[in-house]
Structures are given as structure tokens and as C-alpha cells.
Amino acid sequence: MSERVFMKGCEAIAEAATRAGCRFFAGYPITPQNEIPEYFARRMPEVGGVFVQGESEVASVNMLYGAASTGTRAMSSSSSCGISLYSEGVSYMNAARIPAVYVNVQRGGPGIGAIQPAQQDYLQATKASGNGGFRMLVLAPATVQECVDMTYRAFDLAAKYQNPVLVLTDGVMGTMMEPVELPPMKSDEELAELKAAYHYRAVVGHPLGEAVFCRPGGIGGGWEEINKETVKMYETWDSEVEYEEFMMDDAEIVLAAYGISARISRYVVKALRKEGIKAGMIRPIKVSPFPYEAFDKLDFDRVKGILNVEMSIPAQMKWDIEYAVHGRCPIAESLRSGGELLTNDQVLAAARALAKEVL
Amino acid sequence: MEKQVYKKTLGVLPNTVSGFCPGCMHSTVHKLIGEVAEDLGYLDKLVRVEGVGCCGLGQLYVSHDSTIAAHGRGCAVATGIKRCTPESLVYTYQGDGDLASIGMAETILAANRGENFTVIFVNNCIYGMTGGQMAPTTLIGMKSTTTPKGRNPEEHGYPIHMCEVLNQLTAPYYLERVSCDTPQHVIATRKAIKKAFQYQLEGKGFSMVEIVTSCPTNWGLTPIAALDFLRDKMFAEFPLGVIRDKGAVK
Ligand SMILES: Cc1ncc(C[n+]2csc(CCOP(=O)(O)OP(=O)(O)O)c2C)c(N)n1
Ligand code: SF4
Known about the structure:
The complex is a heterodimer. Chain A is of the alpha/beta class. Chain A contains 14 helices and 16 strands. The model of chain B has no long low-confidence stretch (mean pLDDT 96). In chain B, strand 7 (174-179), helix 7 (183-201) and strand 8 form a beta-alpha-beta unit.
């Protein structure tokens, strides 16, 4: 049975994770995601779970590696410059195929950047969250409700593929309050079943002859074969591509945005329509795998221009859009960064300017 | 009537030949861990968190569950594992570069939280795997590939004594420094590992057994000469003995 409450994004993420069966959380304080560890610190003892304040992001992500390798549903969260320190552990979790979930509540960058919201970790999140050239499923919620639903699903996806999953959100979503419907709490029996299903590769101790060797590479070789196996998994991810098309049926101007920028773009599309401009929006729901098909299949006799809306300077998602569009129409940008927020007016003005130029 | 007085531990895979250098004590320590876990009836609950370095060569020989932590992160990974499966017998196996340099923060903070697992710390004063660079425990004057004129305290500081560093903390339960250069010392090491494992099974919290060992290959000495160096120089800098034992009967 679901339940409707008014919640802040960060806390909603933590509650959704708890309901999905998360019983271990490790994290290090960093704004704007402190409410996630703080919520877990209160919540985990209530459900017999573990909360550890790691001594650093490096330690926290490696605790996550350990916890998730036992088959316990486990999570960690951080923000931007903290996520940079995750790259070691994230790479190891990909190498060893550990089903862990982590959340990036993005803030301004590069460097220590700004504590205010941003979307400046797109390329890191989607292309290279660590050394070695692996890929991950990256979910990009645009409402607090989606923060809940995607965090909940992230655990199932991690278990399905036995691979880490990233929820990529931002400081706006993390600190904003909205009414949400919470998913049902997974029962202890369900969690025990999930754990039992993982037991064959859980690092918990096994009888002689059945020992589990959980290896993120190392000596002994055979890693190229494992890389090839992983590619086979990536090839099944066509089914994981997820995007929303908003008012796209007759659109001539297309706004492309994910997460918080998509909310602003949705408003702008409606405003443009009132002005008689046929606008629409493509919103990647997962930013990895990227929905190239959504752009590739566009009728470029009709679509005259794309506006890439992102809270990042320079633009980052634009690379993926350019790759799919391949010069078939101009791609303009409406951007902010460094903790400065996009406004409806800025994006509207940019969209009008594009329409004026290409229509 | 015949009586079996010794057998190879089941904690190490049968029919494997150790790839450690001649005179290296890593293989002895692996054997002892296996024997102790077997004695305690805990081989099927034994979990090894391996550091990166020559200690990592052990992954090919152990017969129990194991994972490899990123270089230095053994105590963080073990924290995650042990907190989620308190019924497992968890130990980290780390060298001096791993535990005391890149992993210093993870080691100290896990010890400070009193995490209920055991650290097996193999201190050979040098980076073995990468070919003999200076470690935080390298002796004053000792040559390494990155201190070709010997470790100079004015430039490189002094050897770090990890047992003593951890002894500054309130939480650790048991800290002992041992070696494997003589049969007596091997027996003492076995006892220390057993005590540490028993404390863990009793839920007492953090223990570390530091094993002062030789690395003939990177010290540039024969195995026999390395033993002399160990006894003359290493034991002087790193005296053997119990540094802390909260469970000792007075
Ligand atoms: C992040 C990272 N940095 C550096 C290395 C390279 N590396 C491998 S082993 C090692 C040193 C190991 O020395 P020690 O911990 O003393 O163990 P020993 O080989 O002596 O047993 C280093 C620096 C690595 N694997 N990962
Ligand atoms: S290099 Fe040193 S530590 Fe490594 S196996 Fe050889 S003797 Fe042992």
C-alpha cells in the first residue's frame, strides 16, 4: 500500500531506499545532501540496518563496496567534489560487479565549486565515473516523486545486473519539498530471499570448495574475458533506455534537458505554445544509456532547432545530443553553472531567439 | 600405531605452490591464519579482505572467501562486510604501504570506531610489490629505490610505529607485534592471531597483529642475511611484544 506525504528530496531518497530494503548506508557530510545521511542515521536503527559516518568519501564508498558485496542492499550518497573521491570505489564496484546504489546530489563545480545546485557532473556520471572504461545505469529524476521511484528501482536494477547504479540528481531536487507517494516497505522475508539469492557470490564465508573470490581485477589474469562479458551486458541495455517526449508530436523547436532543467523546460514549452511556437521537449529519464534514438528518429524536415538546457557551463549533455543529431539541425544552448540557477525567463528568451533564427 | 602430528591446513588451497620469493614470510602467515581458523572451526565463516601489494599474491592460495580492497582501503571494506555479517570472521591482510601510508586514515578511523574485525599487518619496511620503494616504516638509513642514499629523517621523516599509533586510541582491544623468524616466534604469531580471532568472536572489537617480516628480494639480501637484518635492525626499531591487551588477566 502506498502512502502520501510531504517530503524533502534528500529525505525522500533515504526513505525510498529504506523501503527498497537498504540496510547499510555510509557517507561523509557535504552540502547539499546532508539530509540523506542524517535521515539514515535516524532510520537505520529502526529497521535493524547500519549507518556509518565514514571518515571520508574514499572510506565511505569502500565501505559500500564491502557492505554490498555481502548481498545486503546498501547505499551511499555525496555531492560533486565528494563524488570525485568515489571514483576509486565506483571503479572497483564495476570491476567486481557489486550491486550497490549511490546518489550524487550535484552542486557547482569544478573544484569545491559552490554548495548551490548545478548539473556539472554529467560527463563524469555518464562516461567515466572511474578508471577503466565501464558503463553504469544512471537515473536522472526531475521531481521528488521521481527521486523516490528511481531510488526504489535503482536497487532492483543493481540486483538485476549485479552492477552499481547511480541516481544523478541536484541540489534543487535534494532540498525541495513536494508531496510524494511512498512505495511499500519490503518485508524482512523479501529481503531474506534477496540475500539468499545472492549468497552464491556473497563475501560472507562459505564451506570449503564453495569459497567466493570477489575480485575487482588483480593477479591471475582473465580480466579481458570479464570485460567482454560485461560488454554483453551493456548490449542488453537498449531495453533500459528511458526518456520522455513532451508535446513532441508536431514540435519544430525541441528543448533537451534532464533533471531540474527539464522542469524549467516543461514550463517554457507550454509558454512557447501559448505564443504560437510549436515547441516540445525530450527528457532523458536515464542519462546512461543515453536515449540517442529519441534524437536520431526526429523528422528534421519539421524540427528546425534544438535547445540544450543544462545547469553546466560548458554544456555537457550537448555532446550526446550532437552525436545523435549529427549536424541535421542547429543545437543552441541555455546554460548556467557554478551554483547559479537557470530561470524560466532565461530559457524562454533563449528558446524564442532560436525560434526566431530557424523558423 | 601411527599418529598424525601435522597436516597442511585446509585454509590454503591444496596443490598450489606459493609464488612468494624464497625467504618471504607471507606464506608462513597465510598458513598460520588457515590453521587458526581451522582450530576455531571457523574456516567456513572466514572472510579475507586483501590489501594491494605482495599480500595480494595470497589470493591465489587461500581456500576461504576473499575480496580485494583498493590499495589502503582494507579497513573500510572490512567495516562494510563485518557490519552487514557480524557472524563472519573477518580479517584484513595488509602491508605497510597499504595500511600505514595510503590507508592510514581508514586504518586509524576503523580502529577508533572499535570495528570488530582483525587486522593482520605485515610490516616488511618496504614496498614489496612495486619493487622496493620507501615505506612509512622504512628504517633510518635504509636504502630503497626512492631513497637511494638511505632514508634521511630530515627529508623523509621517521619510521611510523603503527601499534603505538593505535595505542593512543581508546577503542582498540588488542595490539601485538610479533615475527616469524624462528619456530618460537612462529608459535607466538600463531597464538597472537588466535587471540585476535577469539576476541573478534567474543565481539570485543578492533585487534591488530603486526608481523615484522623480511623482504629479502627488495632488501637485496639473501634469505639468511635478511633474517640477521630483521633481528639486528628491525626488532630494534619495532620491538616485539604485547602493546595492548584489554582481555589480559592481571
Ligand atoms: C591507488 C594505487 N596506488 C598505487 C598502487 C601501486 N601499488 C601496488 S602494491 C603497492 C605497494 C605495496 O606495498 P606494501 O603495502 O608495503 O605491501 P608489500 O608489497 O610490501 O607486501 C603500490 C604502491 C596501486 N595498486 N593502487
Ligand atoms: S618482494 Fe618481498 S614481500 Fe614480496 S614476495 Fe618477495 S620477499 Fe615477499
